[in-house]
Amino acid sequence: MLLGLAPAKDGGNRTGRVFTGDRSGDFLFAALHRAGLANQPTSTRCADGLELRGVYVAAAVRCAPPGNRPLPDERDRCAQFLQRELALLPTLRVVVALGAFAWDAALRAVEATSGSFARPLPRFAHGAEAPAGPYALLGTYHPSQQNTFTGRLSPEMLDTVLGRAVELAVIR
Length: 172
Description:
By secondary structure, the protein is an alpha/beta fold.
């Protein structure tokens, strides 16, 4: 599972599929294609032929938040949907959190569905890896333009995290 923040106003909210039709999605789908997890490197609309292989894409928040910054209350109101998605994916082994907000949402959802964690909870960082209930949780910076245009997240950095996710999904 790739867990993002929320559908972007001009991306997933417009197209009906998270990360489709925006710059974050361009960066993400190109990386998924390089990792062998997508049949094509782009996705511009729902019926564009994109097929994901062994990957499910979700969002911590269901609606495009004002200013693209959801509040914790929005995350909490949407938590039940993420919890249900986890329950509907019985073969899920790895959750890749795209940013700190998604990392926190993933930990909360896993705790709600699988039981409590030892404290302190694992902290987000790019490349962070932590057990989370029955899953491995990996962290990467969000593929937003503010991260990709500044070099905070490079294609190679995302490729490394996705490669590790594939490795863990096969090993576990």
